[in-house]
Amino acid sequence: MLTFKQFINELAREDVTISSTDVEEMRKRFGDKVLQMGHLNKDGSMNVSVDCIIEAARSLKADALTEAAEIINNEHMVSMLQSGESLVERVGEANERKLRQMIRNFQESDSSKSHRQWKQIEKEVFGVEYND
Question: How many angstroms separate the CA atoms of 61 and 128, rounded?
Answer without folding.
Answer: 34
